[in-house]
Amino acid sequence: MGRQEPRPHATDYAYCEDLLRRNDRDRWLASLFVPGASRPHLHALYAFSFEVARVHEIVSEPLLGEVRFQWWRDALDANSEADAKGNPVGAALLDTIARFSLPKTPLLELIDARLRDLYRDPMESVGALESYTEATCANLFRLATLILDGEEAVAGLGVSNHAGIAYGVTGLLRALPWYCARGQVFVPVEILRAHGATQDDLATGRASPAVLAALADLRALARAHLETFDARLHSLPDHSRSAFLPVCLCEPYLRVMEKPGYDPFKTVIELPQWRRQWILWSASRRWE
Fold first, then answer.
1. How many CB atoms lie within 10 A of CB 18?
2. Contact (CB, 8 A) for 179 and 203
3. Domain check: are 147 and 74 in the same one?
């Protein structure tokens, strides 16, 4: 299994890195702390995720989004690789899959999960939210560990799942104003009902006590998975741990949401880049 710099697709990998640097800064910053030879392949993986995630933003109707998703499914099909290689993200991804013998099923699951974004279906339960974040985030962590270490031990420990749910839920909370403005509500209906809140409260940006209580439950959910992740992290092979570095930013973001004056529909949940880099660097040393 080759781990050399991917020279034949250097332009494609450079495109992926630029895409990530501009649109998914946290994952790009985290990639700076993984071995240099593996870095371009993580860029390809995350660039694919970004391209699929933004489909619902750039199409005017769900059917057009389904067409784009089908293109990506076909791109992962061995019989359609020639067409996919005309797309820099597709070319880099296929090269990465081939170099590391990555399974394609997690990528197909990610595409299927993003169908929900097109139709803005309500998230009925906590279990549905966990399944969604497992498909869209945990699968990326799983594949990243295979790139870095080539081992499947992570899957048995469930570390990828807990990391993905924590990272995914934190990300959805950070993006809450943007999603709600589009009429897309990821807060599970069962949590809203438990506090007497409704989806309309979120869609209209009403930061009522009931809504704030529901969001507190989501932060608790993220932290529960973070706790399990932290407990299991050091059981992993050393080489695979850096795949999970983005997760170390979750708790700092969650704390911003608990500061006085927090308004879930107006407060920008962000950290200065220098602080993110310091957190990532500290975690990379701590996890060695």
1. 14
2. no
3. no
With contact defined as beta carbons under 8 Å apart, do 241 and 287 qualify?
yes
- Judge if 286 and 148 occupy the same domain: yes
CA–CA dist 89, 97 (Å, integer): 12
Q: What are phi and psi of 120, to 5 degrees?
A: 55, 40
Number of domains making up the chain = 2
- Token pair, residue 33, equals 């702390």
249 and 269 in contact (C-beta within 8 Å)?
no
User: 161 and 182: one domain?
Assistant: yes
Q: Amino acid letter at 88?
A: P
Task: Find out whether 52 and 73 touch, Cβ atoms under 8 Å.
Answer: no
Task: Report yes or no on whether pTM surpasses 0.70.
Answer: yes
CB distance 190 to 126 below 8 Å: yes
Q: Which of 93, 119, 145 is the last residue of a domain?
A: 119
pLDDT in tens, the chain (288 residues): 445 554 678 999 999 999 999 999 999 999 999 999 999 999 999 999 999 999 999 998 999 999 999 999 999 986 556 667 789 999 999 999 999 999 999 999 999 999 999 998 889 999 999 999 999 999 999 999 999 987 655 555 689 999 999 999 999 999 999 999 888 899 999 999 999 999 999 989 999 999 999 999 999 999 999 999 999 998 888 888 999 999 999 999 999 999 999 999 999 999 999 999 999 999 999 987
Instruction: Please give the Cα distance from 122 to 259 (Å, whole number).
Output: 28
Write down which residue in 119, 149, 184 finishes a domain.
119
Q: How far is Cα 84 from Cα 120, in angstroms, rounded to an integer?
A: 28
CA distances from 245 to 30, 60, 82, 281 (A): 6, 35, 34, 9
